[in-house]
Amino acid sequence: MQFVNAFLIGGTLCLIGQILIDKTSLTPARILTGYVVAGVLLSAFGVYGVIAEFGGEGASVPLSGFGHLMASGVREAIDSDGAMGILTGALTSAAAGVGAAILFSLTAGLLSKPKEK
Fold first, then answer.
1. What sign for the dihedral angle of Cα 10, 59, 95, 38?
2. Is 54 a member of any domain?
3. What is the residue range of 65's domain?
4. Could you tell me if residue 101 is inside a domain?
């Protein structure tokens, strides 16, 4: 059942993105940024945690999940470090994912052979 829930939540997020691309003049960059901001806002109101628990990876993998991760990191860092957590929480919580993306991108770039135009 968890696969079905992940598909429903992830598919709904993709559907919303596709509708925004088709029906508005928003650029993909603005839509992606909007997803991150929406994840932060939904997390701040306590809604995204419920969505993520129901949808599992279907809610964690998209960019809205990245916003939720950053907001959760800031909340935890504020609880443990006080006001300094505002500056460090998001970076600390997302460091592993960002580091992995950089490492895998570098590895792919070094192992691939670019085509000449």
1. positive
2. yes
3. 2-111
4. yes
